[in-house]
């Protein structure tokens, strides 16, 4: 089962990497100098969320799956609705079904505070997924 999740992670990471600029490709230590706190913040947040509710790890993986299922892995499931935009978060298949948005928002806020502007949402999702899979 773990190999399945690893394969999923590799596929998601490969998709993100293929879209990256050739000079700015991601690698495991991509943020080690610009934001060394990134992985510890994410890991601590995920562990805290799972201690508060043991099913949250599975819910976060499901959240990621739902994002990838509709129009690819682009983190669009994290976008809030506006007056002119209805996002995937409240789309019929996800409404009252997918959860964990508050965990993502809390961790992302801590990452942004520690490393302002360095962590796009898609990259953040990849780090979160990696944290869940390799804890």
Question: Which SSEs are present, and which pair or pack?
Answer:
Blueprint: H1 2-19, H2 38-52, H3 56-69, H4 101-114, H5 121-133
Helix pairs in contact: 1-5, 2-4, 2-5
How would you describe this protein?
The protein is mainly α and 135 residues long. 55% of the residues lie in helices and 0% in strands. It contains five helices and no strands. Helix 1 runs antiparallel to helix 5 (121-133) and helix 2 (38-52) packs antiparallel against helix 4 (101-114). The radius of gyration is 15 Å and the shape is globular.
Quick summary:
By secondary structure, the chain is mostly helical. The chain has helices at about 1-20, 40-50, 55-70, 100-115, 120-135. The protein is built from 5 helices and no strands.
Taken as a percent bin, the fraction of beta residues is under 5%
Choose one word for the global shape: globular
* H/E topology pattern: HHHHH
Oligomer: single chain
Largest pleated sheet: none
Category from helices, strands and their pairing:
mainly alpha
Q: Mean pLDDT, rounded to whole units?
A: 74
- The counted number of beta strands is 0
Helical stretch count? 5
* Rg value: 15 Å
Question: Kindly, what is the distance between the CA atoms of the first and last residues, rounded to a whole number of angstroms?
Answer: 15 Å
Low-confidence stretches: none
Proportion in helices: 40-55%
């Amino acid at each position: 089962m773990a190999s399945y999740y690893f394969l999923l992670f590799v596929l998601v990471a490969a998709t993100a990497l293929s879209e990256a600029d050739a000079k700015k490709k991601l690698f495991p230590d991509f943020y080690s100098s610009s934001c060394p706190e990134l992985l510890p913040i994410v890991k601590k947040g995920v562990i805290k969320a799972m201690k508060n509710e043991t099913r949250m790890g599975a819910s976060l993986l499901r959240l990621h799956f739902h994002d990838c299922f509709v129009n690819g892995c682009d983190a669009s499931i994290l976008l809030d609705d506006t007056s002119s935009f209805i996002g995937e978060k409240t789309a019929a298949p996800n409404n009252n079904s997918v959860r964990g948005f508050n965990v993502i928002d809390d961790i992302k806020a801590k990452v942004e505070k520690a490393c302002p502007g360095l962590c796009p949402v898609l990259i953040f999702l990849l780090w979160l997924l990696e944290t869940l899979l390799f804890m």
